[in-house]
Every structure is written in C-alpha cells, then in structure tokens.
Design goal:
CATH architecture of the largest domain: 2-Layer Sandwich
Shape: globular
CATH superfamily of the largest domain: Dihydrodipicolinate Reductase, domain 2
Radius of gyration: 22 Å
Distance between the termini: 40 Å
Bound molecules: nicotinamide-adenine-dinucleotide
CATH topology of the largest domain: Dihydrodipicolinate Reductase, domain 2
Largest sheet: 9 strands, mixed
CATH class of the largest domain: Alpha Beta
Number of helices: 9
Order of helices and strands: EHEEHEHEHEHEHEHEEEEEEEEEHHE
C-alpha cells in the first residue's frame, strides 16, 4: 500500500462548520481511519494547513489536534506548490475573494455554500474554475444524511409512483442573545455581512429538490424578519437587517410542487430539525436528518372529518420505519471522500461550482420574489 499526501489549505477552521464538520469529523476522522483507501493499493493522507486571521486561535487549534501547520498568510499558503487543495468555510462575505485567489493560484477548490452572495459572483467563480482547468466542489451535505439517502432510495426504487408534493419544515429557535447566548453567529442576522436564512438555506433546498425530485423551475417566496433586535457575541445589541424566516413554494420539473418553511424563530414540535414529507400517488414518506418513515397506499387509513369525535388512534403510529440496510458515515466526510477521489482518480463529481451557483440563483430569485410579491421562473444555468 502506498500513501500519497494531499496538502489541503483549510480557511475558516475556527468557525462552527470549518472546525467541527470539516476538520474534526471529516479530515481528522479520515486520518484516524488510516487515510482514504482508494481501493487500488493507494491511500490518500489529508494534511491540513490551517489558515485564518487570528494566529492565537489557529495555534491553539493546531496544538489541540496535533497538527503542525497553520498560517495567517493566505497568499503565502497559496504560493506553496505542495498545497493542492484550497478549502473555504469562512463567513460567506469573505468567500469570493479567497476562492478567486485560490483558483488563480491553480489550486483545486472545495467550498462551503453559498459560493457567493449573488448569482453573478457565483457564476464568475464557476467560469474562472472552468478556464483554469482546476477541480472544484461545493458542500451539499444534506444529500449524504441518512434520512435523505433513505428517501433517495425510495425515489429510485419507485416507491412513490407519481410524486405529487414535497413539504419541508426546517428550523428551531435561535436565542436572541439577551438572556441566553445565541447559538448561531451574529453575522447570520446581518444582510451586509452575508447573513439571512434565504442565502443560508435555499442553496440546500435547491440541491435537495434537484437531486431527489427534479430541478426547481419556479419560486415564490415570502421572507420576513421576525426578531428585529438581537445581541452579538459581545452582548451588544444590533438590528437584524437580514430575514430570519422564509416561506417558499418551489415548482419542480416533472410537475411536483415543494413548499418549504425555513425559520430561526420557530420552536420545534417535530422529531428532527428538518423534515420533508413526500406524498406520492402510491405512497408517502417523512424523512429527517436520520430517520425515514413510510406509508404505502395499501396501509393508508381513511380518516373522516368529524370534529365532534375525539381522535382515538395515533396517525403517527400508522407509519413504518425504513431500515438503514447500510452504515451511514458523517455526511460531510462522505462528500469529502468523493471529492478527494475526484482529485486523485478523475472520478466524476457533479456537485461543483456550477451546481453551487444554482443554489445562489434560487436564493437570489427567492429574495426578489418576496421583495416584489411575484413568482419567478428559474432559468437553467449554463456557463
Ligand atoms: N453545509 C452546512 O450545513 C452549513 C451550515 C452552517 C453554515 N454553513 C456555511 O459555512 C460558512 C461558515 O459558517 P459558520 O456557521 O461556521 O460561521 P462561523 O462564524 O462560525 O465561522 C466563520 C469562520 O470564518 C472566519 N472569517 C473569515 N473572515 C471573516 C469575516 N469577515 N467575518 C466573520 N468571520 C470570518 C472566522 O474566523 C471563522 O473561522 C458559511 O458560509 C455558511 O453559509 C454551512
């Protein structure tokens, strides 16, 4: 077995996603299992080079994880020819600039979503990457969650018959920061810093709908800022300039309609923080992050509307749990593995910067739809 080291510049690793999901649960987890076995006698060994703005935070992070390489000089890291990949999990507003520099330096790039604050920026990145001939990928982690993989299995197996509708419910209460600290960064609530639930979540809904049910062909959204004042990490009050809830209707190629609520101002009365109910002519399913339950047409009860009588049975108990039938790894790690294989072995990879641009396009059109009170067609993108 030969071992090939892939040096990966990781920017934004002191943040929530960069640290927990990408560094610890993905690349360090790969190292803990001995690297990525390519199955042909070669193992890829990811070597993170931590990049950021704060030396003390990077040093502490590197020491904590037994890593030796970190830098606050992005240009120097990009000039290092032994670094093959640039990864970005910075706050959204810092992304385009860093990715542009990484592509110009000839690095393969892998990035968190959204790839840019607007469609023009997202498409420009995709074009730069194409022209530079580098490989590129965008995080689309929800596709790799156990619940959604089971749902995809049902779609592929023809369980639903004609798919009629998709109903998504995402959200939880994000504390305002006054009497309990907020559990999300304050920039999420400031439009000028790349915040807002539409730019955050519509890119996810775009690829989930696209990969499972069909491309989004039209959007109609209503967005609002329910909580108008919050407190930041220092306890200082600030005005929320970005929306914290979005109520969207998405028309899909193939005729199904999806309706997804996204909110950081909702209290959870669900089994999981996101759930999708899919109703098909032959069966229905409710999928969350991990679980997935189904009800086949043959098992569908016949409720009769009668408010005078109490409900004597549990509708939830009439669904069956879909078995795992496989082992599910962390979704971020699963996608990293595919991206690294794409780099090492030319294996196909379609979750690229053009796919990322589709997510930004949907966010942009969703915001326009809400601002103007009208439905927007979503044109197919090409480079
Ligand atoms: N795939 C997912 O499920 C998912 C979930 C949450 C967030 N995200 C995305 O990941 C990215 C990071 O989100 P997060 O929640 O980890 O944010 P965070 O605030 O916790 O981390 C941001 C990181 O970027 C760095 N940074 C660099 N320039 C910055 C600037 N100008 N302002 C603020 N921070 C700056 C910070 O130091 C930190 O390391 C965002 O683009 C977000 O959209 C993805």
């Amino acid at each position: 077995m030969t071992r090939r080291t892939v040096r990966i510049a990781m920017n934004g690793v002191t943040g929530r996603m960069g640290h927990r999901q990408h560094l610890v649960r993905s690349l360090l987890a790969l190292r803990a299992q001995g690297g990525l076995d390519l199955g042909d006698g070669e193992t890829l060994w990811p070597e993170p080079v931590l990049v950021g703005r704060r030396a003390h935070a990077l040093r502490a992070l590197a020491e904590r994880h037994g890593l030796t390489e970190w830098s606050i000089d992005l240009d120097a890291v990009l000039a290092d020819e032994t670094v093959e990949v640039y990864f970005d999990a910075q706050a959204t507003s810092a992304r385009v600039d860093a990715l542009t520099r990484a592509i110009a330096a000839g690095k393969h790039v892998y990035t968190e979503k959204p790839t840019a604050p607007d469609l023009a920026g997202a498409l420009a990145l995709a074009r730069l990457a194409r022209d530079a001939g580098i490989k590129h990928g965008v995080v689309q982690d929800k596709l790799f969650l156990p619940g959604l993989r089971k749902l995809k299995r049902l779609v592929d197996g023809g369980f639903f018959g004609e798919i009629l509708s998709v109903r998504g419910e995402f959200g939880y209460w994000v504390f305002e920061g006054d009497w309990q600290p907020a559990q999300r960064p304050s920039w999420n609530y400031r439009a000028e810093d790349g915040g807002g639930i539409v730019l955050d979540m519509f890119p996810h809904w775009e690829y989930v709908l696209h990969d499972l049910f069909g491309r989004v062909t039209a959007v109609n959204a209503h967005v609002t800022t329910h909580i108008r004042e919050r407190r930041d990490e220092q306890g200082k009050p600030y005005t929320a300039t970005a929306e914290d809830a979005a109520y969207g209707i998405f028309e899909l190629a193939g005729g199904a309609v999806a309706q997804i609520n996204s909110s950081w101002a909702v209290r959870v009365h669900r089994d999981e923080l996101v759930e999708f109910q899919v109703d098909g002519a032959h069966g229905s399913a409710v999928a969350g992050l991990r679980g997935c339950r189904v009800q086949h047409r043959s098992m569908t009860p016949k409720p009769v509307w009668n408010p005078d009588l109490p409900v004597t049975h549990s509708f939830r108990d009439q669904w069956q749990e879909v078995p795992d039938n496989t082992e599910f790894d962390n979704g971020f790690k699963a996608q990293w593995e595919l991206f690294l294989r794409h780099i090492a072995r030319e294996e196909p990879y379609h979750w690229d910067l053009l796919a990322g641009a589709r997510g930004v396009q949907l966010a942009e059109l969703g915001l326009k739809s809400s601002a103007e009170g009208r439905r927007y067609d979503v044109p197919e993108l090409a480079l």
